[in-house]
Structure formats: structure tokens, C-alpha cells
């Protein structure tokens, strides 16, 4: 099982969610985060003083998939989240050691 | 001095025509004030259409008789009945002699031979006068309630401009200042400020608009220097004790108290986010009791700044209609002293002293608060006539409105030019700056003057905010700029733009103008003065002089017969006294009180957010607060 962590632009959430559902993925976790990469913040002037907004609002999607679905899921996320403009975000993939469904106690790929 | 004014008041009561609080009416008929009151012909009252025919002797809704046998006037035909039954709801034209029988109950001697009630002249006078006082009381109370609502406006503006982690604390200071300041004012602030109100310099024929009860406020401390009286303090009315128990006094107390609370709540904005709440409590009592009351006595309580006109021929003395100086400059100066004494917020200035932005957490809250303040200002300015019967209230209200609007546009244009983007929080400051600036001149300028004053205020406030920020004064909400700097602009504006159309006799100084020359008559309550005034303003051989109101140096451009430079001098003195006295007194207070109760919150509390450490609750427990706008703490 692999975990996909994708930090994307907030307004892209619906699209990415729909793309993953179409692949048969049945669940995901979403958190609201702040971040920056090479897209730096902007400098504004507030009541006479400069301030730089470094951190921009983003959304992080975490979804655990079976090994077989990994490549196709990553491709779907990237395609749905892409705008072509700076700040689109990143996808990280990591290995997952165990998965348990709390309600039934199922483990492994059945629980994903 | 005290006795003469008392005597004047009694003389005036004896039967002269009633002059409005603005002293605008001139008695053209030269009536001797000691003569008997003029006979008032009781004209027949219109009968309600539904009443039984007037010939019915048992009718309870009686009409006034056509001339009784002992009256001097010939019998007159009754006027047509009011159209009570034609499209108007029943009672819309209610009002008959039965209603006038109160408060003096009709007795047997007041019944005509034909069995109808008759109204005596005295009853009629009393009822008319009572209505006048009642209108004035209701007006002053309602406008006072509007000003009380401004506390909510201040609370929203200040909380919106500060960080979420301090929201409960900032709200609490704005909330408690209402009660703390009020108690301080009740204990001694009102007595110091208005205890000697009845002895202040007033126009010829002036009567207290809220009722003769205001004349109870007649004790104070006055020093005489070189023959001139300098009123320093009122000394009556502590704890609103029985010696001042009167509707008029209580009405005045309420109205003046909400003005005091406006001053009191200005520093809670500038000193926010690092003010130890326990010290704030001490401050709350102090401000209600002392600085505002003392300076206020000098301008509004009949004290020495108001007396500058009579003492030194400086215009009408210090003129401040609704408080650009007494309320806003005073509050702004206290805020400056406090912000300086308490120091900037942690992280506000970097190692090089360059200011960092610390954005507020709720812009819509700021704008809602600003509108509430603008609404309350319709109580603040027009209410300061203390008289609903003074038609000037409409002009005051419109001038107020125009100045606020012009100021917001002035700020808009300035922000686009200087900042590139029109920061909404600055637009709010702009509107308020215009309202502050028009507060002193609102009764004395024409609409063009109001727009100019407002527009300039909107420009000034932007540069002022940048100015204080750069100088190391951390004013979270721009209170010093909105209230202090523009309060100063408002005080000076009276001496620049006032056009003489209102305020004749203000400060006990009648400035008469004719053919390019001024004659000044000071109201010293002497009959000879009264006589001279009547002659000069009358149509006789020495007459034809116009009693001109408060006029500024550019007054002629706005409609005055001529400008008056001396008024500007009085305004400048007023402003300087306010700044110097209030600043010194405030610095003294903040420094000394800091020894007993630390003015500043603990460093770690300030970093965490004051809500939990000092207030025990979070303002927004359900919302994750990120504190992302807080800069690094050096």
C-alpha cells in the first residue's frame, strides 16, 4: 500500500476528488494548510508598514491506495490539480506499513 | 458674578419672549423685562368632530369659550373643526382644553357661567412651556442613547483591527470602560465638569433648554485675576446627590456621561494587545473622574476657556459644539501618552526600528463598527443642541453626514495615490476622521465648509497614521490620528470656516456688525446692557446692527458679513491648553500608576495571546486561530 500526499491549490479540491473517485478510490483525508515553494508570497503595505505574506493557503489530500492503483492515481491527481501556473503544488508518495479499518477490524489491502 | 447671572435668569423668566438656546432671536419690540407678561388671547380651540354640539352644557369635551365677558378681545368665530374624520385615524388630532387642565386641576372657579371649563392664561403658558421642555428632554435623551450605542461601534472597530488571540481582551476593555467610566463620572467627574454650569457665560436672554433645574448647578471654584474670572472647576453634584435632584440635571448627566465614555474608549484602541487589564481598571476610574472633567469644565462647564471671549475679546471664547476638542482631541492625547508610556507591541518594530505590519483579524467587523459609529454620530452632533426645539439640528445633522462622506472619499483618493490600494481599514479611519473633525464646527459652517473640512480630514488621517507608526508609537487602530490629530483640526476649523449663521451670543459675547464695523456687547446681566443691546439690534436711530454668530477667519467666504480672526486665536489657545494639560496629566498618571499596578501585560502572556491568561476565556474557542499575522518577537 502506498500513501499519496498531494498539496494543491484549494480551488482544485473538487476536481481532484472527482478524478480519484472515478478510479474507484473510496476515501481520502483533506486538511487545510499553508505553504510556499518557489512561489514566494507578495509584499503588501498595511497602514504604512510593509508585510510579506509568505505562506499561502493550500489543501493537502492524503489517500492510501493499493500498489496496483498507485501510478494511475498519481497521474489523475497531477492532471486534475494542474493549472500550469506557479504554485500548483507537489505530490509525495510513501510506503504504508499497515492499514486497519476501525469498524470491522479488517487489515491490509482490504482495509484500504 | 454668580448673583448677577442668577438675577438675569429670574428677570428673563418674568415674562420676556423666550429666546432659543442658540440666542438667535433678537427682541425687536424692546420689551421692558420687568413688565407684566403680555396678555394672551385664548382663542377658541377647534372642537373634535365627534363631540356633542357645543351648546350642550353637560359635554365633557368642552371648548375654549369665545371671548368671555371679562376678556378684552371681541368674540371671534371658532375656526373650522379639524378633519379628524376625513382620512385620519381617530385621535390623530387629539387635544382639547381637557388635556390642558393638567397639571393644574380645574376647580370651581375655572368654570364659566355656562358650565364650560376655561383655560387661564397661566395654564396655557405652563402647558406650552412644559411641551417645549419636554421636547428638549426627549431629544437629548434619545440622542444620548444613540451615543451610548457608539460603545458597540468602538468595540467592533478596535477588536477587528487587532489579533484574534486578543479579541476577548480588547472587547472586555471596551465593554468595561462603559461601567468604570460611568461610575467615575458619577462619583465626581460630572460635578467637576458641570457643577458650576449655571454660572457660565451665556447669551442675553438664555434659558436652560432642559428646564430651570439646570440652574441648580451653581457651585464652583473660580479665581479672579486682574478683575477677570477664571472658572477652574465645578463643585456641585457629587454622586448626583439630592442637592441636584432634578430631571434636567439627570438628563444632562446622561448625555454628558456618554460623551465622556467616548473619550474614555479611545485609548483602549491605541493601547490594545499589551495592556494589563488590572491597570486598565484603574485607568477606567481615573478617566471618568478627572482629566476629561477638568478640561471639559474649562470649555463646556463655563470655565476659563469659555470665558476667553468675555475676558479677552477673543471671539466667543473657546467654541466646541459637540467635542472635537473636549472629547476627541482629549481622548487622542490621552491615547498618545498611554501608547508612549506602554510601549509598542512585541515584534512591532524590528532591530532597526522599522515598523512591521500586524494586520487585524476581522475587516468586516471593523466596517460594521464604523457604520455604528457613524449612526451614533447623529446623536453626538445634533444632540449637542440639547434642544429638539432648536431647528438647527437638521443643519448639524447634514453637515455631519457630509463631512464623514467627504472624508471617506478624501481617504480613498489619498490611499490610491500614496498606497496603491485602498485599504478598507484606512477608509474606515477616514470616515471617522471626518466625523471627528466636523464635531466642533458642525453647527457653525455651511455645507461647503463641512465638505472641505471632511475632505481635508480624510487626507490628514492617512499621513498621520504613517507618521506615528514611523516614530515608534504603536497605535493599533489609528486612534491618535483619527481622534487626536483630527480633533485638533476640528477645533481649528471653527476658527477658520464658521460663517456666523449660528451661535449669536455664544460665550456671553454678542458680536454686532454693521457697515463694516464690529461692536461687542458682553452679557453681564446688567439692565443697562440689555437696554443697549435692544437698542443696537432694534430699528431705532442707533439700531440696525446684526447679532452675528460664531465666525471664523475665512467666514466671509462662506457667508458671514466679515471674518473674525480673534475666534481662531481662541481656538488655538483651546487646542494648546488641551494638548499640554491633558498630555502632562496623562503621562503623570500612567507613570505613577505603573508603580502600583504594572501597565504592561506579562511578556509571555502577550505572546500567547491575552485572552486566556488575563480574561480566562478564548474569544473563538471553536475556531483554530493560527496567529499567522504575528511577526517574530525580537
- Helix-strand makeup class of chain A: alpha+beta
CATH class of the domain at 129-501 and 568-615 in chain B: Mainly Alpha
Low-confidence stretches of chain B: 6-74
Q: Helix share of residues of chain B?
A: 40-55%
| Strand arrangement, major sheet of chain A | 2-5-1-6
Strand order of the largest sheet of chain B: 4-3-5
Low-confidence stretches of chain A: none
Q: Into which percent range does the helicity of residues of chain A fall?
A: 10-25%
Any idea what the CATH superfamily of the domain at 129-501 and 568-615 in chain B is called? Ammonium transporter AmtB like domains
Secondary structure class of chain B reads mainly alpha
Radius of gyration of chain B: 28 Å
| Beta-strand percent range of chain B | under 5%
Radius of gyration of chain A: 17 Å
Largest sheet of chain B: 3 strands, antiparallel
Instruction: Note the main sheet of chain A.
Output: 4 strands, antiparallel
Number of DSSP strand runs of chain B: 5
Q: What is the CATH architecture term of chain A?
A: 2-Layer Sandwich
Biggest interface found: A-B, 10 and 20 residues
What does this structure look like?
The complex is a heterodimer of chains A (112) and B (634). With 112 residues, chain A is of the alpha+beta class. Chain A has one domain: 2-Layer Sandwich (Alpha-Beta Plaits), CATH 3.30.70.120. Chain A is built from two helices and six strands, in the order E-H-E-E-E-E-H-E. Chain A has helices at 13-22, 70-81; strands at 2-8, 29-35, 42-46, 49-53, 56-65, 89-95. In chain A, the strands form two sheets. A four-stranded antiparallel beta sheet of chain A has the order 2-5-1-6, covered by helices on one side. A two-stranded antiparallel ribbon of chain A has the order 3-4. In chain A, helix 1 runs antiparallel to helix 2 (70-81). Chain B has a domain at 129-501 and 568-615: Ammonium transporter AmtB like domains (Ammonium transporter fold, Orthogonal Bundle), CATH 1.10.3430. Chain B is mainly alpha-helical. Chain B is 49% helix and 4% strand.
Amino acid at each position: 500500500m502506498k500513501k499519496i500526499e498531494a498539496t494543491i491549490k484549494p480551488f482544485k479540491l473538487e476536481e481532484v476528488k472527482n478524478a480519484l473517485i472515478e478510479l474507484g478510490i473510496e476515501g481520502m483525508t483533506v486538511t487545510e494548510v499553508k505553504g510556499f515553494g518557489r512561489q514566494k508570497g507578495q509584499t503588501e503595505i498595511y497602514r504604512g508598514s510593509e508585510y510579506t505574506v509568505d505562506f499561502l493557503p493550500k489543501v493537502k489530500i492524503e489517500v492510501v491506495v493499493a500498489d496496483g492503483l498507485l501510478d494511475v492515481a498519481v497521474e489523475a491527481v497531477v492532471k486534475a490539480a494542474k493549472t500550469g501556473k506557479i504554485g500548483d503544488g507537489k505530490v509525495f508518495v510513501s510506503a504504508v506499513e499497515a492499514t486497519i479499518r476501525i469498524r470491522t477490524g479488517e487489515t491490509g489491502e482490504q482495509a484500504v | 458674578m454668580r448673583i448677577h447671572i442668577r438675577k438675569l435668569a429670574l428677570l428673563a423668566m418674568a415674562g420676556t419672549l423666550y429666546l432659543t438656546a442658540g440666542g438667535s432671536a433678537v427682541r425687536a419690540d424692546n420689551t421692558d423685562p420687568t413688565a407684566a407678561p403680555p396678555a394672551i388671547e385664548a382663542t377658541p380651540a377647534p372642537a373634535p368632530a365627534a363631540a356633542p354640539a357645543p351648546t350642550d352644557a353637560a359635554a365633557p369635551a368642552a371648548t375654549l369659550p369665545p371671548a368671555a365677558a371679562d376678556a378684552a378681545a371681541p368674540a371671534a368665530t371658532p375656526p373650522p373643526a379639524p378633519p379628524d374624520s376625513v382620512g385620519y385615524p381617530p385621535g390623530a388630532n387629539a387635544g382639547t382644553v381637557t388635556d390642558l387642565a393638567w397639571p393644574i386641576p380645574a376647580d370651581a372657579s375655572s368654570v364659566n357661567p355656562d358650565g364650560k371649563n376655561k383655560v387661564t392664561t397661566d395654564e396655557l403658558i405652563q402647558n406650552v412651556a412644559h411641551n417645549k421642555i419636554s421636547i428638549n428632554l426627549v431629544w437629548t435623551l434619545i440622542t444620548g442613547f444613540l451615543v451610548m450605542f457608539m460603545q458597540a461601534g468602538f468595540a467592533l472597530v478596535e477588536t477587528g483591527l487587532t489579533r484574534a488571540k486578543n479579541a476577548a481582551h480588547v472587547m472586555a476593555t471596551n465593554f468595561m470602560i462603559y461601567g468604570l467610566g460611568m461610575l467615575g463620572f458619577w462619583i465626581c467627574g460630572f460635578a467637576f465638569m458641570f457643577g458650576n454650569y449655571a454660572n457660565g457665560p451665556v447669551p442675553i436672554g438664555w434659558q436652560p433648554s432642559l428646564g430651570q433645574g439646570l440652574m441648580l448647578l451653581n457651585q464652583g471654584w473660580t479665581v479672579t485675576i486682574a478683575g477677570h474670572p477664571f472658572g477652574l472647576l465645578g463643585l456641585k453634584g457629587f454622586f448626583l446627590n439630592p442637592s441636584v435632584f432634578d430631571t434636567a440635571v439627570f438628563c444632562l448627566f446622561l448625555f454628558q456621561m456618554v460623551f465622556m465614555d467616548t473619550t474614555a474608549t479611545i485609548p483602549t484602541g491605541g493601547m490594545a494587545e499589551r495592556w494589563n487589564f488590572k491597570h486598565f481598571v484603574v485607568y477606567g476610574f481615573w478617566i471618568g473622574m478627572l482629566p476629561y472633567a477638568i478640561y471639559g469644565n474649562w470649555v463646556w462647564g463655563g470655565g476659563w476657556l469659555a470665558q476667553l471671549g468675555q475676558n479677552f475679546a477673543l471671539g466667543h471664547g473657546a467654541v466646541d459644539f459637540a467635542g472635537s476638542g473636549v472629547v476627541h482631541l482629549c481622548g487622542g492625547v490621552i491615547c498618545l501618552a498611554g501608547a508612549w508610556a506602554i510601549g509598542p507591541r512585541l515584534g512591532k518594530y524590528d532591530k532597526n526600528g522599522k515598523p512591521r505590519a500586524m494586520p487585524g483579524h476581522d475587516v468586516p467587523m471593523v466596517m460594521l463598527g464604523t457604520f455604528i459609529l457613524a449612526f451614533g454620530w447623529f446623536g453626538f452632533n445634533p444632540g449637542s443642541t440639547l434642544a429638539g426645539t432648536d431647528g438647527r439640528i437638521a443643519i448639524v445633522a447634514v453637515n455631519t453626514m457630509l463631512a464623514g462622506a467627504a472624508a471617506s472619499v478624501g481617504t480613498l483618493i489619498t490611499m490610491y495615490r500614496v498606497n496603491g490600494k485602498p485599504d478598507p481599514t484606512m477608509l474606515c479611519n477616514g470616515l471617522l476622521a471626518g466625523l471627528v473633525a466636523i464635531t466642533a464646527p458642525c453647527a457653525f459652517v455651511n455645507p461647503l465648509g463641512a465638505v472641505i473640512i471632511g475632505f481635508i480630514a480624510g487626507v490628514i488621517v492617512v499621513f498621520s497614521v504613517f507618521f506615528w507608526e514611523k516614530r515608534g508609537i504603536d497605535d493599533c487602530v489609528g486612534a491618535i490620528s483619527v481622534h487626536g490629530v483630527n480633533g485638533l483640526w476640528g477645533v481649528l476649523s471653527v476658527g477658520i470656516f464658521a460663517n456666523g449663521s449660528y451661535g449669536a451670543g455664544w460665550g456671553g459675547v454678542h458680536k454686532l456688525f454693521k457697515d463694516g464695523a464690529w461692536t461687542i456687547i458682553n452679557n453681564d446681566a446688567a439692565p443697562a446692557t440689555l437696554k443697549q443691546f435692544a437698542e443696537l439690534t432694534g430699528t431705532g436711530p442707533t439700531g440696525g446692527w446684526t447679532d452675528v454668530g460664531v465666525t471664523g477667519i475665512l467666514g466671509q467666504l462662506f457667508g458671514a458679513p466679515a471674518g473674525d480672526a480673534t475666534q481662531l486665536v481662541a481656538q488655538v489657545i483651546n487646542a494648546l491648553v488641551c494638548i499640554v494639560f491633558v498630555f502632562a496629566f496623562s503621562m503623570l498618571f500612567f507613570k505613577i500608576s505603573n508603580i502600583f499596578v504594572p501597565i504592561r501585560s506579562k511578556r509571555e502572556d502577550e505572546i500567547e495571546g491575552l485572552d486566556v491568561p488575563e480574561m480566562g476565556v478564548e474569544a473563538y474557542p471553536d475556531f483554530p486561530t493560527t496567529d499567522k499575522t504575528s511577526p517574530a518577537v525580537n
